[in-house]
Amino acid sequence: MHRLITARNIYHTSFHGITSVNNSIESFYLTKIQCSYCRSILLGQLNPEKNISVRHQSTRTASILKSLKKKAKHKTYRQYGELLAVGEKEMTETKVAINKLHAVHLSKLASSSISLGQLYQLTSKTIKESNISEVDTELLKTVRDKILKNNKPAAKEIILEYDDCALLYTSNKISGFEDTLKNKQYIEMIKESYYNFRRATIYDQRLQDLRYAISEGLSQEFDIEIPKANVKEELYKHNIPKSPRAVFRELFIDNNLDSYDQELMAHISTIQSHAITHPALDEMLDDSVLHNEISDIKEDHDAEENIEYVPEKNQVKSLKIKKAKETMKAKRKAMRDKRHALQELNMKHDIKELEQRGKQESLHKLLTAHLQLLCSLHMVQEARQILQYYRQKSFRGPDHPKVTDVTIYNILLHGYASMGQLENVKELLSFMTEGKVEPNEQSFAAIFECVERSELSDKVSILKFYRKLMQEKAITLNDILDRSKFLYDQREQVLKAVRRVEPGFEPQYTPPVLDYDCPLLEKLKLENVKARKGLFQSPAEGLLSVEETIQNGKEQLQIEIKGDIEVQNIIVKEDVIPESVKFCRKKLQETENEWRDVIKEAFIRNIGTLKSQSNASHSAITLYPYLKVLEVDQFVDIIMDEISKLVDGSETYSPTLKLLQREIGTQVYHRYQIEQYRRNGVLKKVEEIYEKYCQWFVQRSGTEERPYNARQAWLHLSHLHRDGASLDTVEAPWPMEMRQNIGKFLYNIIINDVKIDVNMFKSKPKQKKLPAVYKVHRPWGRLVRLELKPHPTLARLWTGAARPRLRMRAPLLPTRAPPAPWITHRAGAYLLTPTPLIRMPFNVSMQWKRLEESPPAALFPVLDSLNQLGEVPWRINQPVLDIQLKVFRSGGNKKLDIAPPASALDTSTFGAETDAAAVFKRRIAISRARAEMHSLWCDALYKLSLANHYRDCIFWLPHNMDFRGRVYACPPHVSALGADSARALLKFAKPQPLGPRGLRWLKLHAINLTGEFKRHTIQERLDHAEMIMDKILDSADRPLNGQGWWMKSEEPWQTLACCMEIANAVRSPNPEEYMCSFPVHQDGSCNGLQHYAALGGDQAGAVAVNLAPDDRPNDVYSAVAALVEEMRKRDAAAGIQPAIILENFVRRKVIKQTVMTTVYGVTKFGARLQIAKQLKDIDDFPKEHVWACSQYLTVKTFDSLREMFTSTKLIQDWFTDCAKLISGVCGESVEWVTPLGLRVVQPYYRRASPSHATCRAPLDQHQRPCTMKQRNAFPPNFIHSLDSSHMMLTGLHCQAEGLTFVSVHDCFWTHPNTVDIMNQICREEFVALHSQPILDDLSKFLTERYSYSTSEMEDQSIGAANKKRVNNMLQKVPEKGTFDLNSVLDSVYFFS
Question: Could you tell me which residues the PPR repeats occupy (predicted)?
Fold first, then answer.
């Protein structure tokens, strides 16, 4: 339970039903107001905008109450709260937006049989004596006489009818809160408590226009013709009470009333599960006023409390709101700074040091990228000036970061070395000595290159001099060639120079590390050839020859160099072209040709202006060089492609202008990278190594006949061919801020110079040019997004042209040849297209640092897992594709997940309104529905067009992962991670015979896909498959015109594909020899709970999620639903209304999502929304009871889970507590190491203020972590890292056995004939994973990483208690249960 306080202006124009015409107090007489309190307020505060204090209570669960007691007592919860209404037999807790609650609602609650004002005051704690003076004794006497009559009416007859304000004072001890729910009994309690009143809650029942609020403490100035010295006397004369702010402060701050609130909260939380309703609350929620938006003003407890009067003529002065707000803002900022300063004392690292380190690292990244760019443009002298500028700047004071990264100097050294300018190299070396920067092997490689390229006559003596310097630093000649990275012909030049000093020298290159260093992969090490025998067999064996694979690889390289491809539009037929389409295509071609000329002219003009500005600029780093990296025509092509993307965008949603600018800037950077690869020899080296890799991939030869995987083979081939350019060169990416500026430059051309003739479609056109795209300010929550939209004429022209081909970017496509294997965290997936190993926000860098700090072998398991998934070749399932194309072209089918066009929208479902406002809302709703349908239709168009493009091809799907280790296919349109319709389009390219049990698994898979037999045994499913074989064959033969059995499945398209495969198999001469390429799935049974049950050794939980062997599958969702139903029956017998209403509605589907997401940290409110959505989807469920019944089911579902999974709750709580202390006390983000060695860092940090810096430090280098997100995300993220580890272990061992393995998180795919082997490996690796001391290892890592030393926890030190809590909590590992983990090996339904 928590207090919720808001603030808003109110008006006194309708006090007690008296309406003021001109908002002046002189328009009516004070004597007409019966309430003396209101009369006193009006006399003392004559202002049409005033504030009144109102308190509102709401409930939270008992578990949250415990944490609330430890929080600051002035903590304010805003935005949302839960209303509690209590009646004779029922109580309802409802979540509403409190800042939308008007006085009419408040009055209804106050006038009910028991109001919130009474409710929150009923406490079992004795109240201390208070010095608060009574508010208006005359009114109190009247109210007391009204309430304390001799007769004792029934509870439902008690209504506070008095016209004056209702002031309720209750404070004495109550024996039990349950008594308040009994008829008549609570009346005597109110009587007893009334005589000892000390606390007040003020409700005026007749203020219809009230905007209730707590006073902001603004100094109010009014005109009253009394001298200032007589203010106190006049206040006493009119009996004016203390100001609302003063009353509120004394009631709820000075006297710490929070303790009384919490006492009552504890009582209410014990009876939350009754979910009782109240008529007054139902009436209030139906009121349309509830949905009006009222902004809330933040509370400030330190505002002024005295009212200042300035005598002047009878005129009312306005409030000094601006000045008061500035004062309060300054006070709040001072309080926050003080609080943060105290928190910072406990934290591991000082925020200022963190910011300084972040500034220095960001400067190093900026200089590295910029100097690389300048050297590539042969602007070495300009690069030296920039370096000198920042060096001199660093000497001005300690606040300026110093240039201490040797990489920056090495870039310039190589720049001068390429020109043979030794004097400049010597100058740079002096700079390094002055800045205490030690040269490394790369530095001396540049020196040797420079000497070799120079025109010096005596090169040997100079080389010997530098060799002597190398020896002093323990660097050998071999180290120069072995540890340095080379481009162009640098390696050959350095080798020539070395041989001048040491004739006949041959470099000895260190072989790369290839083997694992992980206990879970001990038996897959290279020496265990027998355990890796499956690696001798190629996934592409029999599919492609070496020559075909190499040719496909060259085509893939050309696609990546070009950056995109064009695919046939599946809805455009080129055989008959209407005249209107020809006209639009002609106009579009003319317009595009005109645009190209305009864009080129504008680019040359603007870049000339930019060059002039750069020369006159005081900034060392300017934008001009970044716009010289490509030819002008290349920039024109990029801008034209961007215009096409804008026109193809959604009507209701498009990326913001900032995001568009960032993306086009990134495209320029990628084009620049490829151009650099052409020049510096990297592209040639990639072609050479990839050709040899393709030969190994198909034949599995050329690697000393050892069972290498893809990573090991690529590293081995690269080691054998070290001549030429290095493939592992570390290139500094352009800062995102610089890419943004490039995008701004290019988008200025699009917005200002690209125009279209808006009269082109008129019969007698008069040319009128307007911008082709325009800006749109679209509301986005509380913010406004700036988006770009095409002009309607351009959109019409684009649509009418019906372009026959669609353009798609290379990073969104499958590869035509085997993808490049991941060898480090920097290189993999595509050959040239940069692809991040980990999907992370661009402004977070800590995870990348951890990967760089890790030893190379630590990443090998996850890299090999991604490579294994990417090695699987695929084909398009052509029969299923043809059916989907037929359905799509015929208008789509929403039930089959084939999006219909927007023109198919049935507007009759939106009703027929006559009211003007309703008609407008209906029009908006129809417009949104059409836009959404169009977006879905376009998505289906792209996916089906791309699948149709690859229908006759073999292709591969490169993979990467998120920060937790969960894997994803890089191409989003054709992927196994798509929806049902997308998955059904895929099948393995390499078929295998069904074997003796393959057909059996196909039949089981068809039944599993329907989702109707999850509680049945394997044999029962097989028997059912045999019984409906005629329906399966009918679905395969007549998918659209037959009985349509497949359409009723949960996964209809995958079911249809399986039916077709079964039909082909049973009709073949020998089903066991039938070559099948259809993938069969095995799903985990609520995989998150499986990991929790194994972590905690929870016997009951293990049985519920099928870890323990059983004759029948245990469906945890059905088990929870059954337990909830038992509770519901007991409550229904007790007369609880929601339990009665929910009869026959407690179903598996209703609570499934909640049970599934509980393990991933869903909140009670989120679970309540999930259940409410499921109840709404039930046609015969009474919609008026959805909200109350969802509250009831949420509580019962959580209670059932807590009862079934005891250890799960303990582990979750420990995770949460650890994360809270790590982020809140230590001030650091939570990180851990997965069982496979992947370092994980949670990327949740506080928001940073806007900045216009050229290169800003990453968010995690100048902001503290967000404690709430850290604590809520740690439990689900840790479990996700475990299930990804299990998947990776299974995949690597399947690969070693020669099995085809694909994963969609906890759903494993393989050929039908290898399902049994995969199932065995899956269970063995789960047992092996959880046989590790996972929680103990986690505790050990967290303790080493975050615990405080004894010296930091001295009793006198600030925060010593919190530091001890951190140390104690990190070592407080939950105890394990008695579940025998080895029994998983015999569990048939663990994965099924």
Answer: 405-439
